[in-house]
Amino acid sequence: MGNGHYFGEGLTYLNPSDLKGKLIAIEGTDGVGRSTHIEMLQEWLEVQGYGVLTTGWTRSSLMSKTIEVAKQGNILDRWSFSLLYATDFADRLEHQIIPALRSGFVVLADRYIYTALARDVVRSGDPTWIRNVFGFAIVPDLVCYLRIDVDTLALRVIESKGMNFWESGMDLRLGADLYDSFKKYQALLIEEFDKMAEEFHFEVVDARKPPDEIQEALRAKIELVLKGGRLTQPSTGQPTKASSAS
Amino acid sequence: MTPPVLTFDQPHPFPGKLIIVEGLDGSGKSTQLQLLQKWLDSKGYNVFFTEWNSSDLVRETTRRGKKSKALTPTTFSLLHATDFANRLYHDILPPLMAGMLVLADRYVYTAFSRDAVRGVSPMWVRKLYNFAIRPDMAFYFKVPIEVAIDRLLGGTRAQFKYYEAGMDMGLSQDITESFRIFQSRILAEYDKMVSEYGFITMDATKDIEEQQNDMRQVVAKALENYRPKRGTHGKRALFWRRFDLPKSE
Questions:
Q1: What pLDDT is recorded for position A74?
Q2: Cys-Cys link to B48, which of A105, B95, B148, B182 (CB 3.0-4.6 A)?
Q3: Does A1 reside within a domain?
Q4: pTM for this structure?
């Protein structure tokens, strides 16, 4: 990472400046095809001889069970919702991501803090708090954003695994039914992702294209970063500008 | 749709009152809070009690994390914040909104002091808890470290717990010595916060009754203009009864 650094108030007891690996985040909303592509990317990188660690949202050993239980009951308020994810992320950051980067691995993150930012802002309308909470996250070397429009997404999700309560943001009561709610909630999330894409310098990949084209686009961007070429460096974002989301 | 914006920087807008106690383990703060609750109950107030690290949502996780000693300063801090958020939403806000009294055994200041001592950025942890509401009264039971140790070892607890003694920080192999160093640092953090947050400092070396007497006087004064939002008999608060009015017309 060369000059690894934190978004905000970081882990004072961990210096990120000596991390040798590369941190690559694949972002995008629910059902956009992130995990499929990450699997293929891992294969591709390992064939080339790179050590690869993939890390996924809510998959920490500390929190994965807790989050599952929490999602089953109706016991989630906005802050607990965001903080459960933050705890999960912190656990993976300290126990998986940073150690792997220190040993020179390429870390592929299936979602990064931007997912949490989008979900919280859609619920609160205020980016300040959630950004402060995730201040301890390391700024990735590359963020690839799989961008899709909500109509294509709805069709794709219906065709594949179907919609669930949380992917439809049912806690927000945005729509009359699961489908209606899904479209409204996902549209809000995509809007947030689009805003962040500019602010944080995401590399946007059109997720409506055929899978092999998407994979090719991802590989091209990753290759540049691994070969030391410079895409636009992801930024730490602006110091919490006011948001118009509601 | 957007929930009320709560911020720690300003007094809360709710009709209820939030009274919290802070202090080291062994300072006697929980005893004092229990006695205060007895007294308030006897006065006819509707009192709710909540304590640190007790929500159903994460208590089990915290226990597991502590047992496997897998918690880092940051996950330790975030887990406690999650617990707090869950209790704030379910246990603290509803009665406060309804105009009742809420007593809290430990509050965000516990996190501010402990997490800072563990090496988490003090600025970060303050921002983390910015969604908390500011208590109406914060009692700080100040006790010298030796007194706290004597009380804990002489009382029901024969041995300190791993995290309570800060053993995760590698301060000392000896658990009592580790407790002494860790808690002394926490004490220093508390002392720094007294003026920052306007703690009401209590001399926790005094007799229990004497402290309780002092505490009751302070609370009685603070509640002079407080009107409990409840009827004389029923449990239901006026806050909710208002919604019934149009129906009966």
A1: 60
A2: B95
A3: no
A4: 0.88
Q: Please indicate whether, in this complex, the C-beta atoms of B120 and A12 are within 8 angstroms of each other.
A: yes
C-alpha to C-alpha distance for B98 and B222, rounded to whole angstroms:
19
Q: Which helix (H) or strand (E) holds B102?
A: strand B101-105
Any domain includes A99: yes
* CB contact (8 A) between residue B89 and residue A80: yes
Chain B partners within 8 Å of A63 (Cβ): 61
User: Is A79 close to B73, i.e. CB distance below 8 A?
Assistant: no
Q: How many structural domains comprise chain B?
A: 1
User: What pLDDT digit, counting tens, does each position of A99-158 carry?
Assistant: 999 999 999 999 999 999 999 999 998 999 999 999 999 999 999 999 999 999 999 998
Beta-strand pair A22-27/B47-51? unpaired
Using an 8 Å CB-CB cutoff, list residues of chain A that contact chain B. Answer: 8-13, 61-63, 65-66, 70, 75, 77-80, 83-84, 86-87, 90-91, 94-95, 124-126, 129, 132-133, 135-136, 172-173, 246
Domain containing residue A32: CATH number: 3.40.50.300
Residue A183 domain flag? no
How many Å is the Cα radius of gyration of chain A? 17
User: Chain B interface residues facing chain A, Cβ-Cβ under 8 Å?
Assistant: 1-3, 5, 56-58, 60-61, 64-65, 70-75, 78-79, 81-82, 85-86, 88-90, 119-121, 123-124, 127-128, 130-131
Inter-chain CB proximity B56 and A63 less than 8 Å: no
Say what the pLDDT of residue B21 is.
98
Question: ipTM of this complex > 0.95?
Answer: no
Q: Say which amino acid occupies A225.
A: V
Using one digit for the tens of pLDDT, what is the confidence trace for B183-202?
999 999 999 999 999 999 99
Per-residue pLDDT of B101-112, as tens digits, reads 999 999 999 999
Q: Given this model, what pLDDT does residue A137 score?
A: 97
Sheet of strand B101-105: strand arrangement: B47-51, B101-105, B17-23, B137-142, B200-203
Range of the domain at B143: 20-221
* Residue A143, phi then psi, degrees to nearest 5: -120, 115
Q: Cβ contacts of residue B249 below 8 Å, gap of 6+?
A: none
- A96 pLDDT band, cuts 50/70/90, is very high
The percent helix, strand, coil of chain B (3-state, each to 5) is: 55, 10, 35
Q: Cα–Cα distance between B4 and A69 in angstroms, integer?
A: 27
Burial A31-49 (b: 16+ CB within 10 A, else e): bbbbeebbebbbebbeeee
pLDDT tens for each residue of B40-94: 999 989 899 999 998 888 888 888 888 888 899 999 999 999 999 999 998 899 9
Which CATH number characterizes residue B155's domain? 3.40.50.300
- Structurally, how many domains does chain A consist of? 1
User: Residue A157: which residues within 8 A CB-CB, separation 6 or more?
Assistant: A30, A31, A163, A167, A182
